[in-house]
Amino acid sequence: MKIKTLSLLLLLFSVALGNAADRPPNFVVIFCDDLGYGDLRAFGNPTIKTPNLDRMAEEGQKWTQFYSADPVCTPSRAGLLTGRYPIRNGMTSAKRVVLFPDSSGGLPQEEITIAEVLKQKNYATAAIGKWHLGHLSQYLPMTQGFDSYYGIPYSNDMAKIKSAPNYRAGAEDPDFYPDYKDYDVPLMENDKDIEKPADQNTISKRYTERAVQFIEDNKDKPFFLYLAHSMPHIPLFASEKFRGKSIRGLFGDVIEEIDWSVGQVLDTLRKLNLDTKTIAVFTSDNGPWLAFRTHGGSAGPLRAGKGTSFEGGQRVPTIFWGPGRLPPGVVDQMGSTIDLLKTFASLSGTKAPIDRKMDGYDLSPSLLGSGKSLRNEFFYWNRGLLHAVRSGPWKLHFIQREAINYSRTVPMEKPELYHLEKDISEAYEVSDEHPEVVEYLVQKAEMHKQDTADSLPEQLSALIPNFKYRK
Ligand code: MG
User: Fold this and answer.
1) What is the mean pLDDT of residues 462-471?
2) Positive or negative CA dihedral for 127, 84, 258, 152?
3) Measured between alpha carbons, how far is 406 from 164 in angstroms, rounded to an integer?
4) What is each CA distance from 427 to 302, 396, 416, 423, in whole angstroms?
5) Distance from the CA of 40 to the center of ligand 1, in angstroms?
6) 445 in any annotated domain
7) CATH code where residue 208 lies
């Protein structure tokens, strides 16, 4: 008995010593664009082959109630990187839904990103892929705590040339393959355009090569890799090796290449013995773009998709991975990309900002298996307006948008109430049966609106004077 106690004490002592000597963990965020809840095998997709993501989910944690900060690109990214609802930093707007090549605005300089928080411990930081928080030099990743940037700075369908064929018509065919020259988007290295139009056939491959290189170059110090794929946002492109392979058509090819990319990143971590020193998360910026039919993803059992505040717009397939640190399993607690900043701060021993209103929760107790997520609510902002609120299993909608043409609102007679745990598809409206829940959620929404009344002015509608698109 005594020997056992002694050896246990010794073990605890050595673990404590090991931890003290340990460097803070690396963080990898793999962020897809417009990937739906139903597009991964781990979340029920029956046709797209994703062996690397399957393994990541088996070794890690599959989070089934995880939300992106907003149902469209720009505000979603602002929320992830700052740990605040995008209304707070002016990054959601009724005037313009996202940033475009003629936009002169971006994420305000005074906002504090995850990269800046991790700089307290001198992390090496890289942003690779889609930025979409301002493409003028004063808004690029290096002004927000990143050491370097490589990628297409906004959506890959922007600056479409006039003579290009209509993609929506093309997307009637699951195998329609676009021409990258129809989209006059730059590939940037730090603050310079290095290729225009960017050859998007190899974009996922080239982002991946850069990511692997960054990990290899920084294997001896803590790092934060933000790998934000341009895919599977339309127009869809895949490298030759993946094209025409998936029975799900071009969309499946694109996801299978992203799966390969995940394998490259995780295998590099394993090879360098960094897997047990790293926390990786795979997620998406918003739901599938349903207007593009088979070229868009699937929200699985969830209602509607991108651009809407139904679950299909914002509940995203999310996997956390941290071998040796995070116990594997399925987590059905609520979480959000807004929570990553505080979670990473907690896990790295850095400090989240305290001089401003933050909306994130530290998810580390649930990740480490020592407690429950503190997130019990979520506010669904959309185009500068509060569309819905969730508390526990209940969700109340104030404004709804059409599933396919999400620029249009759906007329509503009264706020609609759904019970998300009994009714994941938001199919059964139950406000008449639960007036007290409606009343509670109306009050909760009012309090949140008052709390966000001091937000920064909207940043998305300012224009570059005399901007001309290539014809
Ligand atoms: Mg998106």
Assistant:
1) 92
2) negative
3) 24
4) 10, 13, 11, 7
5) 17
6) no
7) 3.40.720.10
* Residue bearing the bigger pLDDT, 9 or 324: 324
pLDDT at 16: 43
Using pLDDT thresholds of 50, 70 and 90, give the confidence band for residue 47.
Answer: very high
Q: Is residue 428 one of the residues assigned to a domain?
A: no
Mean pLDDT score of the chain, rounded to an integer? 95
**351, pLDDT greater than 60:** yes
Annotation says 135 is catalytic: no
User: Domain tally for the chain?
Assistant: 1
Distance from the alpha carbon of residue 439 to the mean position of ligand 1, in angstroms: 33
Residue 32 annotated among the catalytic residues of the structure: no
Q: How far is the CA of 130 from the centre of ligand 1 (A)?
A: 10
pLDDT of residue 459: 98
Mean pLDDT of 65-84: 98
The Å distance, Cα 37 to ligand 1 centre, comes to 13
Q: In what order do the strands lie in the sheet with 148-151?
A: 192-195, 187-189, 148-151, 124-129, 223-228, 26-32, 278-284, 318-321, 61-67, 329-336
Residue type, 82: T
For 60-87, b where at least 16 C-beta lie within 10 A, e where not — what string?
Answer: bbbbbbbbbbbbbbbbbbbbbbbbbbbb
Residue 48 lies in a domain: yes
Give the residue numbers spanning the domain of 306: 2-17+25-378
Q: Does any domain span residue 391?
A: no
pTM for the predicted model, two decimal places: 0.95
